[in-house]
Amino acid sequence: MSIYDYDVTTLAGEPANLHDYEGKALLMVNVASRCGLTPQYETLEQLHAQYADRGFAVLGFPCNQFGGQEPGTADDIAEFCSATYGVTFPMFAKTEVNGDNRDPLYTELVQVPDAEGKTGDIQWNFEKFLISPAGEPVARFRPRTTPDAPEVVSAIEAQLPR
């Protein structure tokens, strides 16, 4: 199944279609505003801007499952991301990435192994999944791996549409 086949909701509460991103390389990230890793927003935005014209996008999925680090409303999240980090990449509604109410999209994503071959639950905020232009998850980067780490950048560049 392609990630394009899953239903998502924008941060503003509107239904969204992941088919809008078909043919692009994507970095899907569960994000939070009050996390020690929150400064990754800055680098995520830089990657989004740097590669956007080459068929790449970052997609943010706020999550409040890790230490209650995303407690705000959709408006709070949008304001924080815009004012603090200048985020322009698409943001979606709060999403549960683990547990009984895990979003179906994340049910598929957690099957992707990380660099050590491990699958399963999301460890913390800012876990990153690279999606091919065909909609297939191809790589997983754990939260402490920064978005500009060489292994992330080279993986993104390898997935950019030709």
TrEMBL record:
CDD domains hit by this protein: GSH_Peroxidase
InterPro entries: Glutathione_peroxidase, GPX_AS, GPX_CS, Thioredoxin-like_sf, Thioredoxin_domain
Keywords in alphabetical order: Oxidoreductase, Peroxidase
Top-level division of the source organism's lineage: Bacteria
GO molecular function terms listed in the Swiss-Prot or TrEMBL record: peroxidase activity
Gene3D superfamilies: Glutaredoxin
Pfam families from the UniProt entry: GSHPx
Residues covered by the Thioredoxin domain: 1-161
GO biological process: cellular response to oxidative stress
Active site per UniProt: 35
Family to which this protein belongs: Belongs to the glutathione peroxidase family.
Stated name of the protein: Glutathione peroxidase
Native source organism of the sequence: Antricoccus suffuscus
